[in-house]
Amino acid sequence: MVFKPNYDVEGAQSAQAIQHELWPLGEIDPKNAKFPCCLVWTPLPVVSWLAPFIGHVGICREDGTVLDFSGSYFINVDDFAFGAVARYLQLDRRKCCFPPNLSAHTCKHRYKHAEYGTADTWNDALGLTIRSFEHKSYNLFTCNCHLFVANCLNRLCYGRSMGWNMINVAGLILFKGHWVDTYAILRSFFPFVAVLCFGIYMVGWPFIIGSLSFSLLLIGWFLFVTYCAQNLLEC
Description:
By secondary structure, the chain is α+β, with helices and mostly antiparallel strands. It is built from 8 helices and 6 strands. It has helices at residues 6-20, 47-50, 110-116, 122-133, 145-156, 166-176, 182-202, 206-227; strands at residues 38-43, 55-60, 66-71, 74-77, 87-90, 178-179. It has a 6-stranded antiparallel sheet. Helix 4 (122-133) packs across helix 5 and helix 5 (145-156) packs across helix 6 (166-176). The longest helix is centred in the last third of the chain and has 22 residues, at 206-227. Residues 1-20 have low confidence and may be disordered.
């Protein structure tokens, strides 16, 4: 028979108590821009016209308020930059780690998570990230909105993981996100289709090669800075 130390039992009970205290979330309400505990996405002007998979992301509080990092030393609150939300993905708070103490971690990154910065609630984690990014310079290619959301998810240890970065945040909303409505799909892809048709008409098929090269260059850059040159992300 294996006996668990008393502090482990108490820690587990405390963690369970925290989980039971998660109050019900309100309904997702696109009309009033309320997306409780969601990741949200909207296309970027010009950039998304050439690469429609690139966009602007944010994360929402428990009451549905959208937060996004859209400029140096500045966090938007309830005013999503670059337009209304086009896609969203609601996250499960039960997949987060809210440890009241070191022994009560429900994730396997106990010490790393504590050093990174833990929180008691979803909103607390977002608040800690806001205070951190209020002192950072914005850069589309390094210190951007995706990095802000990744920092939030790492503080939450969402999915019991602390490996969130620009790439997997983008992949999460790209492959699992839900469209708000048909109009959101149109405004996300119509500019790209229009630019593509105009480019082919004016330049010909070389325009497609140029557009594809631009997309591959962007993907290659973000892969490089995320996995090979992480020092560039220290904004």
